[in-house]
Amino acid sequence: MAQAVSHIHKQGFVHRDIKLENILIDDDYKLVLSDFGLSTRVSKGELLTQYIGTSSYMAPEIVAKQDYYGESCDIFALGVILFCLLYQNYPFQGKAQPSDPHYKYFANKNHIRYWLLVEKQTKKFYSPELKSLINGMLAYDVNERITMEEILEHEWLNTDVPSQEEVKQIIQEYYQEQEQKMEEDDLISNSSSTHLDNKLQGNYGQEGVKQKC
């Protein structure tokens, strides 16, 4: 996905509404970035003034209604997505602003305290390399936010990852497990319904009138 965003930036466009709902999977199980309704063409170094997007993915400068660089805000949204994929939750409670109970640690550059809080709440622990990547993508100060080039060269992204075939197999196995679970749930539901029908038949006559003892 970082490569896709890097590509549109090189073409002179910014997306401005990158979020989980706009990331699709094609027939080859490759990620596809969709919905360019809020995208716009930008010149190098151009500041934007339209405060648009989805609030949970908005960079702090947009939340504060400041002029912003579209590329940097796309990177911030990617950071939110990465966190969501790891923790099944957003990295902050409301919006990316200093008053937020979680994002305030980014605003204060107290990353150690932030990750201690996250790990205490989620019981999930990830590598320092991954945390440093997220810290850079979600940086409060736009001048300290990581660039797309730095993301693609980051050590965490250049570690061993599953091949395309392995990813395809993982996803297929996941779908099979979900289908099996749904079938098992249907069997349990049907069994419960049959049991209830038999119980009712025992308490009531075939005409639906309660039998007298």
Keywords:
213 residues; mainly alpha; Transferase(Phosphotransferase), domain 1; 2 domains; two-stranded antiparallel sheet; two-stranded antiparallel ribbon; 4 strands; Prot_kinase_dom
Distance between the termini: 71 Å
CATH architecture of the largest domain: Orthogonal Bundle
Structural classification:
mainly alpha
Look at the structure and give the CATH class of the largest domain. Mainly Alpha
Coarse shape:
globular
Write up what this structure looks like.
- It is a single chain.
- The protein is mainly α and 213 residues long.
- It folds into two domains: 2-161, Transferase(Phosphotransferase), domain 1 (Orthogonal Bundle); 162-203.
- The chain is 48% helix and 5% strand.
- The chain contains eight helices and four strands; from the N terminus they run αββββααααααα.
- Strands 1-4 form a two-stranded antiparallel ribbon.
- A hairpin with a 5-residue loop joins strand 2 and strand 3 (31-33).
- The longest helix is centred in the C-terminal third of the chain and has 40 residues, at 164-203.
- The protein is globular.
- 20% of the residues are buried.
- Mean pLDDT is 88; it is low at 206-213.
